[in-house]
Design a protein that fits this description.
This protein is an alpha/beta fold. It has a domain of 162 residues: Rossmann fold. The protein contains five helices and eight strands. The strands form two sheets. It has a six-stranded parallel sheet with strand order 5-2-1-6-7-8. Helix 4 packs parallel to helix 5. The protein is globular, with a radius of gyration of 20 Å.
């Protein structure tokens, strides 16, 4: 008969095995530097003409990310891209709300909505990817914002926070554990995509110098703080293995 406080080694070993398996299956807080392997995916967010200089919702320096992303993508075997794909007259456009101007906010059924200039309209030149973007091995393009009544910043869940794009299921079925996020704009579509990637259980990183921001009324600082709360790691290209 075991004495009080004796340790049953078989139970201890069994418990350790279970904890190790659970830890391996559930990525935790992102490490300082990601591993780039068969379980890591690069997510390129909305590098489209309308978000680059000359576009209707141009992000300052938006085109500067193109060569950075092109070089970075060569390090990844697995790449997914997102694409804003709005119908004309989308509810997030200021032009759809008489008397309202771009960058004003209104209340929508799903919450507060920034009103934007008309942008990334389906089939338009502005909705196309930047012509300099060269990522031929991208395996999937996830279109978002195509429902007229709901805006969508995140590549995972639309702005009502209920409607899924299907990206979570795709990445899980492919067996990915880590997501590295780049693109436009840091404080909106990149930030929301990264937060949702982390919430879905992926170890998530945002490459700061492969993104550019709109920075609307302090939105950039708020976005970084929100990402940090979700355990998204903020890194630079130099932090990535070559």
């Amino acid at each position: 008969m075991a004495e009080p406080y004796d340790i049953d080694r078989r139970k201890l070993l069994t418990a350790a095995t279970v904890l190790t398996a659970a830890s391996a299956a559930r990525p935790g807080k992102a490490q300082e530097k990601p591993v780039i392997d068969e379980r890591t995916v690069l997510i390129i967010v909305d590098v489209q003409n309308d978000f680059c200089p000359g576009g209707s919702l141009a992000v300052k320096g938006g085109d500067e990310v193109v060569p950075v992303i092109n070089a970075l993508a060569k390090r990844f075997a697995h790449v997914v891209m997102t694409q804003d794909w709005h119908p004309a007259g989308h509810s997030s456009f200021a032009s759809s709300h008489p008397g309202k101007k771009p960058f004003e906010t209104i209340e929508m059924p799903y919450g507060r909505q920034v009103l934007w200039p008309d942008h990334c309209i389906q089939g338009s030149k502005g909705a196309e990817f930047h012509p300099g973007l060269a990522v031929p091995h991208a395996a999937a393009v996830v279109r978002k914002g195509y429902r007229p009544e709901i805006d969508s910043y995140s590549g995972f869940v639309e702005a009502d926070r209920r409607t899924s794009t299907g990206l979570t299921g795709y990445l899980r079925e492919r067996g990915f554990l880590r997501a590295v996020v780049v693109g436009l704009a840091t404080d909106f579509c990149v930030g929301w995509t990264a937060q949702d990637a982390s919430s879905a259980g992926f170890e998530t990183f945002v490459v700061e110098d492969a993104c550019r921001a709109i920075d609307l009324d302090g939105s950039l600082d708020k976005a970084w703080a929100a990402m940090a709360e979700k355990d998204v790691a903020r890194i630079r290209v130099a932090d990535l293995p070559g």
